[in-house]
């Protein structure tokens, strides 16, 4: 998926529902958010058994990291609806890093929607972005900013390049 599609998806979702709150967006999209014990390597996961959609979060995550994880998993539901990266990583040699960075970008753009485009390390830390992720995005912010929509107010749902994503929102 292209950077512009990831950013467009986050912006359109926030505009369409009038919020950047990942929990409210999950509710609006009929994605249940539940807390369950997870393997130590996971803070959350996107799960879709039999057509039901879930965001599973490790219990007791503190805000704002909890918001970041929820937004990240919401990104997986919208950007990668048929990909289970945990299964792929555990059972194949396929590298899932691209999917994870797309979900990171989605969550950062969603959580910064409607705010000044400022991705300093301290601003990203305030959003709950993990330090290694924040460092990578802060270092490459200039590469992402040209893709941000200038006039989100003018967006129509049908303008999204990826029609499959549009159907999920």
Biggest sheet architecture: 3 strands, mixed
Secondary-structure element series: HHEEEHHHHHHH
Mean pLDDT reading: 79
Low-confidence stretches: 87-95, 150-165
Principal-axis shape equals globular
Report on this model:
The protein is mostly helical and 169 residues long. Helix content is 50%, strand content 8%. The protein has helices at 3-17, 22-28, 65-79, 85-91, 97-111, 121-126, 131-139, 141-144, 163-168, and strands spanning 31-35, 44-47, 53-57. The protein has a three-stranded mixed beta sheet with strand order 1-3-2, with helices on one face. A hairpin with a 5-residue loop joins strand 2 and strand 3 (53-57). Helix 1 runs parallel beside helix 5 (97-111), helix 2 runs parallel beside helix 3 (65-79) and helix 3 (65-79) packs across helix 5. The two termini are 17 Å apart.
